[in-house]
Structure formats: C-alpha cells, structure tokens
Amino acid sequence: MADSRSPDSNHTPRTLLRRVLDTADPRTPRRPRSARTGAQRALLETPSSRRLSGQTKTTARWHSHGAKSVGRLACVQASGHLEGQTPRTLLKNILLTAPESSILMPKSVVKPVPALQGVQPSRRESSRGSLELQLPELEPPTTLAPGLLVTGRRKQRLRLSMFQQGIDQGLPLSQEPHGNANASSLTSSLNLTFATPLQPQSVRRPGLARRPPTRRAVNVSAFLQDVRGTSLAPRDVMLEDTQPFSQPLVSCSPSVSCSLHHSSRTGAEDAERTIGRRTQSSGQSNSQLQSNSPRKPAQFLSGKEEEVDALALGFLNTSSNISAEDGVEPLQDGFGKEAVKRMEEEGLNVSEVKEATGGQGPARAEKPEGHTEVTEAERSQGAVEAEELEGSSGDDDTSGRIVSQELVSKSSKFLQVKRLRQFLEPAPPPGAAVLSSEPMEPLLARLPPRPRTTSTRPRQDPYRGGLSHYVKLFSFYAKMPVEKRALEMVEKCLDKYFQHLCDDLEVFAAHAGRKTVKPEDLELLMRRQGLVTDQVSLHVLVERHLPLEYRQLLIPCAFSGNSVFPAQ
Amino acid sequence: MEEEEEAEEQQRFSYQQRLKAAVHYTVGCLCEEVASDKEIQFSKQTIAAISEMTFRQCENFAKDLEMFARHAKRSTVNTEDVKLLARRSNSLLKYITEKNEEIAQLNLERKAKKKKKSEDRNKNSRESAEDGEVENEN
To answer: Each residue of A238-281: pLDDT tens digit?
Structure first.
C-alpha cells in the first residue's frame, strides 16, 4: 500500500486518527479482539472494512498523499451511514471542524498504550479515549473539557492512567505496540493530544503583568538637609512695595517652598514614573504631594508639610470635583503648581500675605483643617504676588505681554482664572485675617532667618518645571506631534502669562486700596480679558462652565427664610 | 421714538466721525514729524491704519479707565487709574509718573501761593481792623 511507515514526525495525530476512523468498521460489535499491530495492519486489513474497502483504499491513498480534505469528505460520506453520536461521528466532526494546525507539545508523556486499531472495542475505546482526550482540545465547551482543561498535569496523568486502566480492563491487550511504530505513533499522538490541553493553561498573558509601583521610603535626613541648605531666590527684586515684615517671612517661605520642592521630587519618583523630569518638577503635581503626605514623618517642619499637603489636598479636592471641562482638572493642578511655583519665590511681603489670607480663608473654611492651611495659603498667595513684583520689575519686554495677551483668548486660561477666583472666595470672614496673622507670627518666631548660601537661583527652572503639565495638555490638544522646541516656547509663554496675570491681580488689589486679592479684582481682570462683557456677566460664565457645587458657592442665591447664601 | 433714536444715532455717528477725523489729522502731523526726523516716508494707508487703531484703542482705554475707577469705588477717573492703565509699558509709566509729579508740585505751589495771599489779606484786614479800632479808641 501506499503506506510509508515513517517515523512519528511525519504523521500528525490528525492523520493517524483519520486512519483510525477509516479503518475502523462502522458497525462492528463490541468484541474483545486481539490487539492489532496498528494502523499499518488496519489499513492492510481489507476484510475488516468491507464496506469502506474501496473508500478506505482511496482514503488510504489520499492519506499517503496527505490530502486530508478529500479524506475528510470520504469520511463524511462514510459516516453518513452511521447513527448519530457515535464516537466515530463525533470524532469525524471534530476532525472536520477543527483547525488544521494543532497545538501540540513536542514532548509527550509516553506510556505504552496498546494497539487499538485492529480491535474494534479497543478502537472504540481508543477513539472514545481519544475523543475524550481530543474534546477538551478541540471542543472546549463540552462537559469534559472544563474538567480537563482546569486540571493540572497531575490530573491529566491520572486521567491517562484511568483511561489506560479502562483499556486494560476492556481488552486483553498485547504489548506489541512498543515495537510498533504506528502504535507508538498513535499512542504518542494520543499522548500528544492528551498533553495539548496543558498548553493553553500555561500561556502567560502579558497584558496582566504590571510593574509593581516601587515606593521608596523618604530619606528624612537628606530631606531636612536639603530643606535647610537649598538656595533661596533673589531677594533684591522686591522694589515697589515697601513692607515692613518682609524679612522674617522670607525665611519661612523658602523652607516651605523647599519642602514642597523636595517633596515633589520624591513624590515624582515614587508615584509617577512616566514623568521624566524629576528635579525640575517642583510643583510637578500636587497629587505627588498628596501621596507624600502619609509618608512624611512628623518633624518640626511637619506643620509646613501639613500645610503643603493641605494646599495640595485643597487643590486636588477642588480639581476632583470639577467635571465640566476637560482641562479643568489639570488646570487645577496647574494652578496649584503655579502657587507652589510662586512659593519658591524669595521676596514675600507679609502685607500681601495677609491680604491673601483673607482671600484664602473662606476658601478653606469649608475644610475642617485648621488655620495652618490659611497660613500656607497666604504664603502661597504672597509668593504669587512676590513673583509678580519680580516679574514686573524684571522684564521689560512688551513682546512677552503681547504674547500673553494672545493667550488670553484661550478658554483654558479662563478656566484657570476661574479657579483662582474660587480660591479667593467672596465675603471672607473677618476673623480669618486675624487668625492668619496669629499663627504666622509664631511660625515666624520659630524659624530663624536663614543665611544665603548660594547666589541668585536661576528663576527659570523651578517655574518652568511646574508648567510641564500644561505643556503636556497642550501637546495633547494639538492633535499632532509637536516639536520639543515648540513645547519649550509654549512653556515660556505660559510662564509669562501667569506672571502677568498675578501681576495684574496684585495691582488691581492695590488700586482698590486693599491688600487682599478679592473676587472683584478677578472680575476686573476677566473684563479686561474680554471674557466678561456688558452682555455676558460673570455669573453667566460661572453657570456655563462650572459645576453646580461651585455655582452655589459663587452666585448668591436666596433661600427660604429670607436668607441669602453665600452671604454678601 | 424710533426716529429720535435714529437721529441720536446719526448724531453720535457724525460726532464719532468728526473725532476720528481729528485723530487722523493729529496722527498725520505726528507721522510727518517722524518722517522728517528719520527720513522715512509714510504712506497714506499707514496713517489711516494708525489713526483707526488709535481711535479704537482710545475706546478701550476709556472703558478700562471707567472700570478702574469703579473698581476703586470712585465716580471720577483719577491719575491713579491712568497710571494703572499705562503700567504695561515701563517707559510710558515712568513718563506719566513724572508728569503726574510735576503737576502735583504745581498744584502744591499754587496752593501755597494762594494760602500766602489769603494770609496776607487776612493780616491786612486784621491790621486795618486794629488800626481802625485803635483809631476809634483814640
């Protein structure tokens, strides 16, 4: 015959099983028969397959050529005679429907399985066994499959052994198949099929693998050293406002700013791996600060840290509440960064800080935290204004202003201003200002004035670092790749813009004879920006862009009992 | 009613046009000066553009000044408001501040003069009154 008994590798289990099917007599009764040597004999044994003889031959020939598809057809034809749902038919269906390529493990648990082809019941058993074996491989949703799939190697082996036991019991088996290549091939094929279900279990799913967040413990001593030793921003640029108490505050602010700076550094390392710049991101994101808060030990600077965290929390809470606009939350963080940025500024004015206190006080009123926040907030605000001073005295170029005015039209900036507005809540309780001044003085007393270790720190880097988040937003909204230089320019422009913004706010407050920036100042600013016009009032904008919670806080509304909230 | 409004509008418009013409003339004069100074020619379109821009910017200034005055809870526009307006360009701010100081000084001097005059008058009147009294007594 056209059988070429080549080694196993040439025959796939499919072909071998096909042979099994072809050679097996469809209607043979269950009779214990002596085990045949294998497929070879089965093929040669024409009398066993009376009906299928012609077909068998052809199928055998076809098999030898490897034309499986035709063979399949023949099988189908043959199976047409059979009753439904015999193992044979099932097997045939499987072979028909299953994909050509089979996932086979190269190694197999080789166990001597007796030759089954020659013996009908053995064949049946084998087919059944192989059926059992193959079902999980090819038809997952059968009842056998889950059990087989789920069970590990051990159970698989058990199953094999059970199967073998069954076979042993069923048939007086000869031990010939050892020598028989076919039998061995068949067994190996069986073993192979047996083993295949293992593979899907062992497939690893790379998508689920996640890098565990590596958290580094904060090196407290280094942190404190850094806090003490870092350079302070230039003090000499404070020109226009002559404030009597600027000196002592200057000393506290750097510590806070430094703490912020370094906390943000460590935070950046820990929490966000995607952000490349570690050293520059002073105000990288206040989320970092927040994540840092549980880790920082309580030191004498812990008060400041709490303030920092409170500020961060404040910013973050407000940011998390916002759902209206896309850029709102990052803007929130951005504003927080900006405030942090400003805090790093050296030239603080206590008076301005006090102004800020009043403004920031009510913003914090809703939070249960104490006046430390107010101190922190006021410092940030003072830093904002100090920054403005520097900005106003520092830069002469009107071009920057023009650029900033161009940016004015962006709605994102408007939202950012809105954030500013929210923080500087209207109707500050008068007690807040008093409160703020009190804790400030003990703080001032606590911190001795620091000697300047290094000369003027380059102003650019810390502030620019804080704007990286905005720059990323920009690159996102650009919807096309943006050059790195362009992004740098964007950052510069943003920096100038914010400087001008706070500059203006400070001047407006001073113009009204106040020391605190109030919502009226912001409204004036927005009017100058062209966002608030005679047709569009501030309340309209608030309603349009802010979520309900903020609207309730900002727009006075009359309630029952003739009470107005928020009180004016 | 509508006719009145239209008439008013027309009036305003004509008024505006006259103002614009005035601005245009002034800008033209200035440009001529600069041209003779720097030996550069100005085209008519340039002068027209500059005058239009100036006019619109003056509108903006006026609105801003009003806003600033209202922000400071005043009903009169002050030099402070003007200084706030000019804060953007440092040189202009300096100039305005200097001028402001000069004007303030002038005012002070005037006040001082007035005070002196009034004092003198008072003295004279007193002296004359005393003399009168003395004379009377005598």
So the answer is: 444 555 554 544 444 444 444 444 444 444 444 444 444 444 44
Q: Hunting for tokens 């698989």 — which residue is that?
A: A156
Query: Which residue in A247, A293, A208, A297 sits closest to A448, CA to CA?
Result: A247
Q: A374 is written with which tokens? A: 């107010």
DSSP label at residue A566: S
**What pairs with residue A565 in β-bridges?**
A557
> Measuring CA to CA, which residue among A539, A555, A540 is closest to residue A425?
A555
Chain B interface disruption, residue of A497, A511, A522, A531, most B CBs within 10 A: A511
Nearest CA in chain B to A401: B88
Q: Are A452 and A231 in contact (CB under 8 A)?
A: yes
Q: Which residues of A428-462 are buried (b: 16+ CB within 10 A; e: fewer)?
A: beeebbebbbebbeebbeebeebeeeeeebebeeb
User: Could you tell me which of A302, A308, A297, A249 has the C-alpha nearest to residue A443?
Assistant: A249
Q: Number of CB pairs < 8 Å for A and B?
A: 27
Write the single-letter amino acid at B47.
I
Classify residue A177 by its DSSP letter. G
CA B91, B96, B99, B104 torsion-angle sign: negative
ipTM for the predicted complex: 0.75
CA atoms within 13 A on the CB side of A379: 32
Please name the member of B67, B73, B90 whose beta carbon is closest to the beta carbon of A524.
B67
